[in-house]
Design brief:
237 residues, alpha+beta, 2 domains, two-stranded antiparallel ribbon, 7 helices, DUF3379
């Protein structure tokens, strides 16, 4: 057996040796050394592959898979929550846009929509909580002040009216609250002096670059409310 054939035979299967191979090993020290090296390498490979399996390996693998699945589910949940929040935010903006935007034709349309939207927050039997001093502090923004509240004032605070900062006043009326809005002039929305729908009526006044809108139900004397506003407000130059 020549040297090349011998090496191929040993490399192919170190443990399988025929008579010719054994005879070649016996008579050649170089081949004996080669066989020893191959046997040593073969034993090292066998030892490296003979790794003991821990008793709890199966439980560890199941736990790892469970944790990975839990983390993946948490990521999916966060994504869903983020998407839901985004949708809710967009829907809120859309509702506000359509409810309080310059798509209304005039001040009257917008005022009626505003009153209807916030009607559930006010009761005609609510106790007055607004002082004249706090009212005039807010009125200073519009360069005006009230000499008196000329009625039972149950609410006074800023709000958004067609995108503009306005002062929203709510008074006790004969049967339901009367709403008064004080806001800057706005060329983007048409001024209208008188307006109404099937339940509400209103009047608009213009003073010192400000619009004052009074809205009440059909039983309210709008002319009297308008006169009270006119007599009670003092405007600064």
């Amino acid at each position: 057996m020549d040297d090349l054939q011998f090496r191929r035979s040993i490399l192919a299967d170190p443990k399988n040796r025929d008579d010719d191979t054994n005879a070649s090993i016996k008579n050649d020290p170089a081949k004996q050394k080669f066989v020893q090296e191959i046997d040593s390498l073969d034993n090292k490979i066998a030892q490296a592959m003979n790794i003991p399996v821990p008793d709890d390996l199966a439980n560890k693998l199941i736990l790892r898979q469970t944790l990975a699945s839990h983390q993946q589910q948490k990521r999916k949940t966060r994504v869903r929550l983020a998407m839901a929040a985004s949708v809710a935010f967009v829907m809120g903006l859309t509702v506000n846009f359509y409810m309080f935007s310059s798509t209304y034709k005039n001040l009257g349309d917008y005022a009626i929509a505003h009153v209807n939207h916030e009607a559930k927050h006010f009761s005609n039997t609510a106790e007055p909580t607004v002082t004249l001093a706090s009212l005039n502090e807010k009125m200073a923004v519009f360069k005006g002040s009230f000499d008196s509240t000329f009625g039972t004032l149950i609410f006074a605070d800023y709000c958004r009216f067609d995108g503009s900062k306005s002062l929203h006043l709510v008074f006790q009326g004969q049967s339901s609250p009367v709403n008064i809005f004080i806001l800057p002039e706005d060329e983007d929305i048409k001024f209208i002096a008188n307006f109404a729908n099937d339940k509400l009526q209103g009047k608009s006044l213009n003073f010192n670059h400000s619009n004052i809108i009074v809205v009440g139900d059909k039983q309210e004397p709008m002319q009297q409310w308008q006169e009270r506003v006119n007599k009670s407000i003092t405007w600064s130059i």
